[in-house]
């Protein structure tokens, strides 16, 4: 154990002696790396960062059900599932294409229109300048980098606005056909009810009445004094005897269809609301503001890392050179 420690200490001392012995070339290489990194960092285009923060909403609809889940209230913040869905929407081509078109990102990123790889280059540039991250608090951080601080803030806020536009369009693809089905079904139910009511009105014009009315007709016939009244009531009773059963059946059908239509109206109103309401799907915690200080490049970090890299490269190169010289002598 002691022998190994002595060997390690000896190797460290040898390395320090080696660095000191070659301090001049190491210093030159390290200095060149530092100066080059410093010059390059000043040549890089400054990028400004703007950030907006939003929370997903827990629900994307207004519920008409009396059994509405308390967690589905429009005032509730979304949880992990809604946050993940929102991140997917933010990364979707619908939002990307709208931002690319509105802010002319091909020209903004200096991508030639005739370049065969223009779409690939745009995707890489977009990924490097736009990021959508779920925070530990369940919110979504929308960050945009651009050489113009004003444009960075404008694009971040536009993305916040597009969340509702894109998600409402996605929801409409399902809710509008569902509403049309419900609307047609409602019209059929109303038509069936109206046909039954029309038949009942026709029978009513003939003098057909309900069961209670027919009982009253018999009582009136018995109590009638004049022959004319008795004849009229006799005719009414005959009409009701002939059509009474049909009238009773139609009344039962009418009541059934009215009940069925009233129950269906809840479903219809829900479908109508889902199809026609432009819902807000997020809570905006913080709008993006114009940055007053660049975010990239970080010149100090670039220079420091390049200097360290230059130093390591110089030491490694000189070690390799000396080792090769030693091997040649042995050979």
Architecture overview:
The chain has 331 residues and is α+β, with helices and mostly antiparallel strands. It has two domains: 37-174 and 280-306, Bacterial polysaccharide co-polymerase-like; 176-276. It is 70% helix and 8% strand. It is built from ten helices and four strands. It has helices at residues 2-21, 23-43, 80-90, 93-102, 105-108, 118-129, 149-206, 211-223, 227-276, 299-330, and strands at 48-56, 130-134, 140-146, 282-286. Strands 2-3-1-4 form a four-stranded antiparallel sheet. Helix 2 (23-43) runs antiparallel to helix 10 (299-330), helix 7 packs antiparallel against helix 9 and helix 8 (211-223) packs antiparallel against helix 9. The chain is rod-shaped. The chain starts with a helix and ends with a helix. Residues 1-5 have low confidence and may be disordered.
Concise overview:
The chain has 331 residues and is of the alpha+beta class. It has 10 helices and 4 strands. The chain has helices spanning 2-21, 23-43, 80-90, 93-102, 105-108, 118-129, 149-206, 211-223, 227-276, 299-330, and strands at residues 48-56, 130-134, 140-146, 282-286.
Residue share in helices? Answer: 55-70%
Strand order of the largest sheet: 2-3-1-4
| Morphology call | rod-shaped
Unreliable segments (pLDDT under 50, ≥5 consecutive)?
1-5
Q: Tell me about the biggest sheet?
A: 4 strands, antiparallel
Q: Gyration radius, to the nearest Å? A: 41 Å
The number of helical elements comes to 10
Domain count, please report it: 2
